[in-house]
Each structure stands twice: as C-alpha cells, then as structure tokens.
DNA sequence: ATGGTCGCAAGGCGA
C-alpha cells in the first residue's frame, strides 16, 4: 500500500498538477496539506472520478488538510486534541481499511515564523499537543502513521544551506528538540530508515531560483509507529514533481507499507 | 539584498 504526504499549496492552483501526479503514481492514500479551501469549495468530484474517497478539514484561505483514499476509511476525526479554542485546520485522522487496518494522521504543523513571537509560541504549543496525541496512540498499540508537513528541518543534512536557517522557526534548536522528543517516544522517520546522507529535500522556495539551485529542505515527514515500521517496504520522494507545470513548492513523499 | 515568488481572493497576509 502506497501512502503519501503532499503539501499542495492551494487546491485551486493544483487542479491540474495534483490529478497528473495521482494518475502517474496511483498512490492508495494521500494526506494533503494547505488545501486553502473550505470543505464546500474542495473539488471532491474530480478526485472521486479518479477512484478516491475524499475527506476534508478545510478553512477559508489558509491551512486545511484532507485525505484521498482508494481504500475505505473509518472513524474519521478532525482537529488535534488539547486546545478547544484552536480554529486552525491542521489535523485529520482516519483508519485505512487495507489488509490490516492502519490509523493515519495527516498534519500541517505551524510554520512558526517569526521567532520569537506569538506564532512561534503557537508552534511549540502545537508540538506539545502532537506529543500528547502520539503518546496516546502508542498506548493503543495499533499501527499508525503521522504524516505531513512538519515545518521542521530535523538535522543540518536536511538543508542544502543550513547556515541560512539558524534563526528560522523551522530549524531553531527548540523546534528540532520538540520533534526529536516526539520521534524518541518510539517513532521511525520512514525516509531516514531507508536513505542516509545529505541532498534529499521535499521543499524548494519559489523565490531566488531555489529549485534551479537545488536550495531545498526536508520538512515533509512520515513518522511510523513500531507496528507500522515493521510493515515498511520502501520510501521515496517524488522530486520530479517540482519540475512540472505550475508545481507546488513541496513535492510528495511516500511509503510503501505491507498493510 | 527591508527584495525576491507564489496562493487566496480581491488588499494584504501567510509562507
């Protein structure tokens, strides 16, 4: 089963590029981030016609996450526990009913810039809530994945120019510590379980010819529970998508799970 | 490099 994460940076702008990638890759399940649309504005018919069930958790203009799935989904929930006042659409969960049911969490972690400041405080608070949710899921002992745009560069090797990010919310020690704390609860970074070394990125800024210069960062991650990690067959980054017509600034990252 | 490029949505914010 191929499960992917893809920050599409606006569903309306990706109305051609997203189906093109789905048709060429045929993933079973995709978590989307930054749909930048309310639920009613999401072009669900387009994806249903391609064989996907569509579950959205949208918001006007900003944020917004969704799950596309060729397999049945059960127990879909929206929103991350821990702050009832939080109205930003950044979290969706569902159980994917394949050979073996897998709990799937799709997330769009806050960017946090500028740091320090209220946006950075929100990022760190959101990561604390994520940590609590992961602890709870681990206690259930069911296989699960937390995948999406984490807006965190885990290590220097995950940036082409780490020195350019030292004061950025994506790379500040507090951000990296918070992510490391979550991973060390017992999760596996699927990409790093299979691929070592520098030069592997999932985002290239639209500005300053970042793509042409390969000035990228790896911030889109698939974290697997121990039971899900045991099912890991393969991983990949669909880098070529960034060179297509009207691309997102992120590319899809995927895992093949024996599930 | 107090810009540079996008998306949403219709001016300015977010990334």
Radius of gyration from CA coordinates: 17 Å
Largest sheet: 6 strands, mixed
Under CATH, the homologous superfamily reads: Endonuclease/exonuclease/phosphatase
Provide the low-confidence segments as ranges. none
- The top-level CATH class is Alpha Beta
Q: Given the structure, what is the number of helices?
A: 6
* Percentage of residues in helical conformation: 10-25%
How would you characterize the overall build of this protein?
Helix content is 22%, strand content 26%. By secondary structure, the chain is of the alpha+beta class. It has a single domain, classed as Deoxyribonuclease I, Chain A, CATH 3.60.10.10. The strands form three sheets. A six-stranded mixed sheet has the order 3-4-2-1-14-13. β6 and β7 (102-108) form a beta hairpin. The protein starts with a strand and ends with a strand. The relative contact order is 0.17. The model has no long low-confidence stretch (mean pLDDT 98). The structure holds one DNA strand of 15 nucleotides.
